[in-house]
Amino acid sequence: MAKWYEEAEFYHIYPIGLLGAPRRNEGGEVVHRLERLTEEWLPYLKETGFEAVYIGPLFESVSHGYDTTDYKLVDRRLGDNGDFKRFVSVAHDLGIRVVVDGVFNHTGREFFAFRDIREKKWDSPFRNWYKGVNFDGNSSYQDGFSYESWRGCAELVNLNPWEEAVREYLLGVIDFWIEEFDIDGIRLDCADCLEFSFMEEMRRRTGEKKEDFWLMGEVIHGDYGRYIGDGTRMLHSVTNYELHKGIYSGHNDHNYFEIAHTIRREFDENGGIYKGMKLYTFIDNHDVERIYSKLRNKEHIVPVHTLLYLLPGIPSVYYGSEFGIEGIKENGSDDPLRPALDLKDMRETNPHPEILEWIRVLSGVRRNHKACVNGRYRELLLTNRQYAFARMEDEDEVIAVLNNDEQATEVSVQVPSGDKSYQDVVSGEIFVPEGGRISVALKPCGSRILVLQGAK
């Protein structure tokens, strides 16, 4: 039986941006912005079909949220711990799981341990909490010592996971989050920088606290399977950046071979290297430009979402992209990717209602056909501009047929079940195979979803 995190459709929220919080934390009074998420956004997510929310970063920091100053305190720009407890409680009442950002590779310079080193130097009991601390060197901040930072960003100081006190502190933080807020999982920031033994320890500890607790890692390059292993000792999932790139460039270049090759390599029923694993699928997030900005032909937004929901993986929609908002990095800043949004205004003035409407269709298909969650993947048709595949489990079959061409076309698709009929989930049209094939008409930049008649 599938776990909740394998069946879930995620909605990804970057709260500092969505809620219009100041980009710098200047201290001062708590502002209870999280209440808007609880009162307005959670009911909307339930209504749209999302069953899980990944929200973060949440905890006290100086700027963008990844320069943590206090792991046990909700950022005052967003609210307080009570606000987040209520957010989780209301989400759970609606049947929505909550996953938060765990930023455990580094802290900000104002974190208590690093501040103590700055003040006491050699005499600090925390001098081994960070990597590369060298009192014969100096930093760009003129600290009187040098240290290792994440990708050379001096405000992000790399923790030393081999220091037992550091590991215990971070594991204690996770205990606190589970006990205090009742969260359902953690997305591990920079998981590809964390020690494997630390992640194994985290898996064991969180499993003891909450049996169905989910751990998902941010991994950009390399072998995703290394972080999941046999599925029992490491992480449950990682980000599928390889597929993310293929989905948008495969449309921009009119090259479905790129997408199909990636999926064949990862999930083919005969030899896919990640077959059986549930990777986290996305088409944009808080670090990459908005999908609507990246697509040269905006009409490709419909088949792009079809792939997001029906290819193997755990689908995630980044806040606002269901309304077709745009966002491109400017002068190295991610701020344009993380705008403030007013939900009431977005729904009333939605310039691209077809996206949200199609997401609702896809959500219903995925929820009603478990073949989309656990089913085998089989490629049925592949050209540069047309692509069809099936997801199959027992007597349940779902077929997606896509067209990235600007012209309407008709394709002949070999179906898995031979002589059984299929039905279009939108139009209701029935397809009766002849010689094991069906003929499917496709609109320009369109996609269709067919299900085996009688399948539940």
Radius of gyration: 23 Å
Mean pLDDT reading: 97
Number of domains: 3
- Which descriptor suits the 3D outline? elongated
Per DSSP E runs of 2 or more residues, the count of β-strands stands at 21
Percent range of helical residues = 25-40%
How far from one another are the termini? 16 Å
Low-confidence stretches: none
- Quick one: biggest sheet? 8 strands, parallel
Overview of the structural elements:
It is built from 15 helices and 21 strands. By secondary structure, the chain is α/β, with parallel strands linked by helices. It folds into 3 domains: 4-105 and 162-371, TIM Barrel (Alpha-Beta Barrel), CATH 3.20.20.80; 106-160, Alpha-Beta Complex (Oligo-1,6-glucosidase, domain 2); 375-452, Sandwich (Immunoglobulin-like), CATH 2.60.40. The strands form 5 sheets. An 8-stranded parallel β-sheet has the order 11-10-9-5-2-1-13-12. Strand 7 and strand 8 form a beta hairpin. Helix 9 packs antiparallel against helix 10. The longest helix has 18 residues, at 164-181. The two termini are 16 Å apart. The model has no long low-confidence stretch (mean pLDDT 97). It catalyses: Endohydrolysis of (1->4)-alpha-D-glucosidic linkages in polysaccharides containing three or more (1->4)-alpha-linked D-glucose units. Belongs to the glycosyl hydrolase 13 family.
